[in-house]
Amino acid sequence: MRWISLLFLTLLAAKAPASQSALTNGQFSGQINGTEIAWLVRGQGPVCMVVTNSWGFTAMGLHRLFSGLEAHFTMIYFDPRGMGRSGPVRAEEDRSMATVRKDLNGLRNHLGLEKTHVLGWSNGAMNAFLYVADYSEHVDKAVFVHGIAGFDEEDLAIMGEKNGSWLVKQAAFMKSLREGLEPDAQKDEKLKNFIIDEWFPQLCANPEQGKLWLRELMGDLPFSWRHMIYQGRDMAHYDARPLLSKIKCPTLVIAGNHDMLPPTGVKRAAHGIPGAVFKNFEHSGHFASIEEKDLFTEVLTSFLNGI
Q1: Are both 134 and 60 inside the same structural domain?
Q2: How many other CB atoms sit within 10 Å of the CB of residue 294?
Q3: Is 14 a domain residue?
Q4: What pLDDT, on the 0 to 100 scale, is given for residue 7?
Q5: What integer is the mean pLDDT of 37-60?
Q6: What local confidence, expressed as pLDDT, does residue 179 receive?
Q7: CA distances for 289 relative to 58, 146, 256, 278, angstroms
Q8: If DSSP codes are grouped into helix, strand and coil, which group holds residue 192?
Q9: Domain-located, residue 144
Q10: The model's pTM
């Protein structure tokens, strides 16, 4: 009987490295849902999967944004299709929020993770509302950072009153991308400079300081105008509010007091989730993880560890 036990242990050992090596810190890739998906593992402790942003933000960018958490959690980030080291876009839908959710769940299965923490930021948070509603049984705890569940008329009125001229400028820029005849690489660079030097700094509590942070954080990252344009199509039909009551896991919803997205709108999303905890970062805009990095790390660590 001893040889049977040895054979069993040998087979068990042969299976183990697939998930264990994937959770070792480093860069990895594999076939997920029929395409090559690349992911990045950083940190130690309980696993937290980050919902990538469908507009084309890469795993490396998210790693830099949430590096403060990596002393406490094993953070898993992944590149969306057509970005970073993931496989190319084969159909327009590969850039969609739905594809991001499908690949997130496929990656979780690939890694052999029955339950994990889930974190989403901005567009990733909006997508995370949909993911967690559908897959609550696989989510231990969820954190939604600077994301709204739907576009309420009151929120749109506040945004228009405070940022009307800027929103007009942003819309004109996006129109120029759609209609421009420049090569993709030129449009990608144009988008990158607009995001880093103009758009995202406006979302910070201190725009001038934000520009310095964002240039350091994102200056060497790739951007995709095609992903950004497709996100606009997704947003036109986005509404997670009817699904919020399906989220059954412990939930933390985070807003920034100086964000262009009104904190009242983010808080409204929290009220739709049974038992959700709401936290407003008083000195942050859309980037609490860097604008108030120490407090952000403390709040998330306490919540996810149940302190």
Answers
A1: yes
A2: 8
A3: no
A4: 39
A5: 96
A6: 93
A7: 17, 10, 10, 16
A8: helix
A9: yes
A10: 0.90
d(CA 225, CA 76): 25
Per DSSP bridges, beta strands 116-121 and 139-145 are: parallel
Q: Do 279 and 252 meet the contact criterion of CB atoms below 8 Å apart?
A: yes
Decide: 139 and 249 in contact? Cβ < 8 Å: yes
Residues 191 and 177 in one domain: yes
Give φ, ψ of 130 to 5 degrees.
-70, -40
Q: Which amino acid is at 201?
A: P
pLDDT for residue 8? 37
Say yes or no: 41 and 93 in one domain: yes
Find the mean pLDDT for residues 149-169: 79
Q: What is the pLDDT of residues 105-155, one digit of tens each?
A: 999 999 999 999 999 999 999 999 999 999 999 999 999 999 999 988 777
Q: How many domains does the chain have?
A: 2
> Quick one: tokens of 105?
């769940």
Bridge partners of residue 32, in order along the sequence: 35
Q: Report which of 143, 95, 179 is spatially closest to residue 277, judged by C-alpha positions.
A: 143
b/e map of 51-77 (b: 16 or more CB within 10 Å)? bbbbbbbbbbbbbbbbbbbbebbbbbb
Give residue 6's pLDDT. 38
- Rounded to whole angstroms, the Cα distance separating 262 from 149 reads 12
Half-sphere exposure of 60 (CA within 13 A, CB side): 13
